Amino acid sequence: MAHVAWLTIAPVKGLALVELEEIALGRRGVADDRRFHVVDAHGRRYGLLRDGRLGLVRPAYHAARERLELAFPDGSVVVGEVELDGEVTTDFFGRPVEGRLVRGPWNEALSAHVGRPVRLVQTKEPGSGVDRGGGPVTMLSEASLEKLRRRAGPDERVDPRRFRMLIGIGGVAAHEEDGWLGRRVQVGEAVVLLHEQVARCAITTQNPKTGVRDFDTLREIKAYRGVRDRKEIDFGVFGAVAEPGRVRLGDAIEPLADF
């Protein structure tokens, strides 16, 4: 039976993923997912495509207390209550995202880690920091990952964190999730309307354990799946929340009958 195999969010966009046992899916997705992002000295978004080392920093965010913790690879930890400064608008692939600059020790620590001045920004609206406006729920099956592993032949299984998806699907065939596009899908207590396949980028070539590009995922996926419109290489699906609700590890996933 199709079921929830993993749940991961990124409280700070581009930093390490956080594994969860339960999430609350609202209309805008998970409130704490991509709640913060990083910008450079010119106000441009600074993410994994520009520096894979960001993915080695482990965040922990406690929204009720506005407490943010960042754990760095050298063992240092920076923690404190979030205080906000001036307003800023960040370009997310042509979509403006409004936010507030964050004051505190995280800016200095992140700047030292990447070797250039950067700052944290908190989005004004929860959910606005996801890449796909109107489609905050991303899903990918374990079988799709296994098929990629078999074709590529690496010694270890393909780490799902490369693809930075919200919900992992167990108990289905490889790429079965593609057949759910345009349909309502029950996921735990929530219902998701899946819109489209996820077009992948070079971030997936980075090893989440090292930040180094070590596996040409795009070439391997293209070799057996081809390309979509505008030369997009797809892996996984995304959609919107039709009915909010809680989702837990092991919950059933079921495409609903069309009406």
Give a structural overview:
This protein has 259 residues and is mostly beta strands. It has 2 domains: 3-28 and 133-255, PK beta-barrel domain-like (M1 Pyruvate Kinase, Domain 3, Beta Barrel), CATH 2.40.33; 36-123, no CATH class. The chain is 12% helix and 38% strand. The protein contains 3 helices and 17 strands. The strands form 4 sheets. Strands 2-1-12-11-15-14-13-17 form an 8-stranded mixed beta sheet. Strand 8 (83-92) and strand 9 (95-103) form a beta hairpin. The longest helix has 11 residues, at 142-152. The protein starts with a strand and ends with a strand. The mean pLDDT is 94.
What labels would you give this structure?
about 10% helix, globular, M1 Pyruvate Kinase, Domain 3, eight-stranded mixed sheet, four-stranded antiparallel sheet, 3 helices, about 260 residues, mainly beta
Chain-averaged pLDDT? 94
Task: List low-confidence stretches.
Answer: none
Structural class: mainly beta
How many DSSP helices?
3
Oligomer: single chain
Q: Give the termini separation.
A: 23 Å
β-sheet strand percentage: 35-45%
Number of domains: 2
In total, how many beta strands? 17
Side by side, the strands of the main sheet go: 2-1-12-11-15-14-13-17
> What CATH architecture of the largest domain do you see?
Beta Barrel
State Rg: 18 Å
Report the CATH topology name of the largest domain.
M1 Pyruvate Kinase, Domain 3
